Amino acid sequence: MEEVDYEANILESESSEDSYGSGTTESSGESNSTQTTNPPETFLDPNNIGPSTVFYRETSTRPDIRELREKAKNAKYTKAPPVDKTKKNFGTFAGVFLPVIVNLISMTYWVRAGKLVGDCGVVYSLLIIWVSAIISIIIITSLCALGTNGEMDRGGVYFVISRSIGPELGRCLNIFLDISTCLSAAAVVVGFAETIVSMYDPKYFTGSYMNDVRLLAFAFMFISIPLSTKWTYSLRITATFHTIGLLSFFIGCFARKKHSTMGFMTPNVDTFKSNAIAPEMTVQKFFSYIYTVSPGFTSLTGCFSYAGSLKRPAKMIPRGLIIAFSISLLIWHVTIIMLGLCGDRQFLQDNIISPIMSFGINKWIGFATIIVFSIHRSSYRHGKRWTYS
């Protein structure tokens, strides 16, 4: 029997309209139709415009629409396990507002606000805050969309990202989130150590400023990690000390003894005019401070820390996130204006520690605030993730 050329059969089948439906090919020059069973050498034939009929000949392996419908009728469905509503007991304030506001009023605010006003002036400081706020608004819109487009479960931002883009890409992105969280925790611990050592300058334990910072940072890190996972109310205690520290600063700007803090005076219009615009402001300094301040505005993923315990996460996450960001933005604006009204420019530039920490009462209030905040920021979020995992 004469061999049949497969490519000739395929080209002949393309010229006939009936060959696509019948699934047979007619060989040129012969009366008998021959059916080829060998698959094509390559999956895609560059000379074949239409689909290859060899893939459609065995119709017995393809289920009919009637079979699919019959299987759907006889399918067995299992109900999802009931949700324990007693675990969903967090509201907007405790579940969304507090984690976000504690991260926004961060070490950048407590330590760098005075330096920002002294180097950049009030006008450029507010402009830097607005640029950082625009970045945060873009992030807030994305977080609100993630918080309202599906079910929320335990796991925080890691669960939300994996649910939205899939576990394969989600775990890759979560690695970078873990690294950024560790770096931010390290920055907070070092900032805490610098604050404490600078308060008691020039009395050093080791005789060196940097060695004291290293020693205190390592000691605090090893103490805070086991403590934070067991301290259930660390978030509320942190917010309480934040509130006390803010009130002591704002009240102290008006109700205090004269010359009690060198370089920090009562509100004065002339002082504000001298601090309005920094004459030595440069573009490089402007963008360097954007790089310094903007990370303090992007710590917004805390809104998902208790997402699995919220009563109505689709409504509570956007509401708490927007309210917390608005209040933190207002606090930044008021603080910058008050520093411009009360602080001497040279004092603001020379002081590494912000004048917010310069009052006698705030030395201890700020000390406690940074301790509790550092505990929460550095390791409590990791403890929540380990518990949920």
UniProtKB/TrEMBL annotation:
* A GO molecular function held by the record: chloride:monoatomic cation symporter activity
User: GO CC terms for this protein?
Assistant: membrane
Task: Write out the ranges of the annotated region (Disordered).
Answer: 1-52
Q: What is its main location?
A: membrane
Question: Which topology term describes how it sits in the membrane?
Answer: Multi-pass membrane protein
Domain of life per record: Eukaryota
What residue stretch is flagged as signal peptide?
none
- Quick check: keyword Transmembrane helix in the entry? yes
Q: Which InterPro entries match?
A: AA-permease/SLC12A_dom, SLC12A_fam
For this protein, the record's Pfam families field holds:
AA_permease
Locations listed in the record? Membrane
Segments crossing the lipid bilayer: 90-111, 123-148, 175-197, 209-227, 233-255, 320-340, 352-375
Instruction: Give the Amino acid permease/ SLC12A domain ranges.
Output: 96-375
Q: Which residues form a coiled coil?
A: none
- Compositionally biased residues, Low complexity: 18-37
Which keywords has UniProt assigned to this entry?
Membrane, Transmembrane, Transmembrane helix
The entry's protein name is Amino acid permease/ SLC12A domain-containing protein
Q: Organism source for this protein?
A: Trichomonas vaginalis (strain ATCC PRA-98 / G3)
